[in-house]
Amino acid sequence: MIKEYEENGYLVLEGFVGESELQKLREVAVQFHQSWKQGSARLYNEGAVNSAYLTAKKHLKDSERELLFKFIGSVKLMGVVSSIMGGRPAFMNTQLFFDPVNEGQRSYWHRDPQYHMSIDEQKQSLLGPNVVHFRVPLVDEPGVELVPGTHRRWDSGEELDVRLEQNGRKNYEDLSSGVNVKLNAGDLLVFDAGMIHRGIYGMGRLSLDILFCDSVPKLVKFVDDSCLPNSDMLTKLEDASAFSRAVEIKFRNRFMEAKSV
């Protein structure tokens, strides 16, 4: 499993989540999605394909948040996270991926860091630190397209032109190097956030995406405090280590900032 991930930048564990647990996650995700759409109607209608911060209090009850925390902090999931990432992974965020309102909207090739990094910074990010997606489709879906190996190598000429829409190319055009990875409900897709990828819309997709990162301040600073479990909740988790690391690093960052003032 580790060798496959290191070589390609992704892997799929089929049937990772059982039907009973999947149904509970689906119900919570639907509740979040309905509430989020009401509060973000303009964004949704303008073409959004994902939302974030599922574990915050804004859209879910404490019991629903607890279900998500327990899934994220389960021995089963954290075992995979630790095997893939090694070291001391930290919780970063949750996202929900869905179909756009406009059925004709096209998906687009990207690397996650491109939206806040220069080209040189994007190249440097291939050396780490790492952010990794752990995605569970809650219904059968078309999946995603990925360019294997691009978690460790820079774009080819074609890939860069398409991704950044250079030289007359568009970011929705097909890439000869792309691989289609179909997903069924309950599978677990693991992929590096820095690799070239795009979602595939259709089939009423609804995917729960959990992001983990290496335990470094420059990544953990993006973790929203409201998305972290409180001390009482931490004691209820089978493996709270990823949450605890995020809390610890954020506390340390604040201490150092206050000390420097």
**End-to-end Cα distance:** 46 Å
Structural class assignment: alpha+beta
Oligomer: single chain
Name of the CATH superfamily:
q2cbj1_9rhob like domain
The SSE order reads HEHHEHHEHEEHEEEEHHH
The helix tally amounts to: 10
Query: CATH top level?
Result: Mainly Beta
From the coordinates shown, what is the CATH architecture?
Sandwich
> What sort of overall outline do the alpha carbons produce when their principal axes are compared?
globular
- Give, in spatial order, the strands making up the sheet with the most strands: 1-7-4-9-3-2
Give a written overview of the molecule.
The protein has 261 residues and is of the alpha+beta class. It has a single domain (2-260), classed as Jelly Rolls (Sandwich). The protein contains 10 helices and 9 strands. The longest helix is centred in the N-terminal third of the chain and has 21 residues, at 19-39.
Essential attributes:
three-stranded antiparallel β-sheet, Jelly Rolls, 19% strand, 261 residues
How would the blueprint of this fold be written?
Layout lengths: L1 H7 L1 E4 L5 H21 L1 H5 L4 E3 L9 H11 L2 H11 L4 E9 L20 H7 L5 E7 L3 E6 L10 H7 L15 E5 L4 E5 L4 E3 L6 E8 L3 H4 L10 H4 L6 H20 L1
Antiparallel strand pairs: 1-7, 2-3, 3-9, 4-7, 4-9, 5-6, 5-8
Sum this structure up briefly.
It is built from ten helices and nine strands. It has 261 residues and is of the alpha+beta class.
